[in-house]
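Hi R.,

Here's the chain you asked about this morning:
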Amino acid sequence: MKIISFPRIHVALADLAGATSRRFGGAGFAIEAPQTIVDFRHGNGHGLLLPEGIESVTVTQLRSLCERMRPLADDVQITVEKMPPQHSGLGSKTALLLAVATGLYRIKARSARRVELQRISGRGGASGIGVNTFFDGGFLTDGGHAEGVGSPPFLPSSASDGHTPPPVIARHPIPLEWKFTLIVPLGRNYSGSDEIEFFRLHAPILKRDALATIGLLYHGVAAAVATCDLPLLTRSLVDLHTVGFKRKELEGQSARVRELLRSLQANSLAAGMSSMGPLLYVVTRTDAERDLATSLAAQNGSPALGTFSGRNSGFEVLDD
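And the predicted structure, written out as tokens:
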């Protein structure tokens, strides 16, 4: 049996100011590739086979997950056959941990509610986009976490476990004619203590910036998806990267990342930076737009991962 999970583009976090009654919140797209593929086989004893280059922290988290899931993990051989680049903005760790948790339940013919899978995986402590797109796909906005006693601190999901995943406020199918060109300039890959320190230095943000971000996400990005209005998405993404935590994320990236994003946006392309980067995404409708995006990336010396469709459904199960 194989579990196939799909990456997500994280557009922005919304309220890192306490400006509303909900912390965090945000929006993002599920896309078709690059995929995470995990194979599960009944075997003699537990085994975990991983691809070369996977970081040690992820290995530790996978082993910890399997230990928490005993006895389901007993006598199961788990092979991670494929996964996207880590810490680039694709949500690869969330896709991987949820795929493993889901596969262990399914190979033992057990069912689990999604909130239980999220709790076991340890993901969704800040943003709910990766967790919810794993199950639902599409374009999602989430409502963050309740403000008050026990609310998560302004830290990344990796440092904010133990919280219920944020609720989906709205889900829209991604327009079929929209394609996503992914570009990875040479930039900074945030993880672990570096990511935590970034949040500690730059959050909370000003309340007016959080409210401006919410307005751009809901009356800009979300409205553009709902009405298939690519020019509105283009304008909204330009403004979004000049305000709030998204501006801080962009400022924390390399000059090459910032220069390429400016170039893409100056050429009237709907471009943004996913999560903390360095991944840039360009939403296009035509071959000419896609050719322009890849040409600008090449001029910047930045490789393109490819152009992919949006993903309007969640993970897949392939039975042998």
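The two ends are 6 Å apart (CA to CA).

Let me know if you need anything else.
M.
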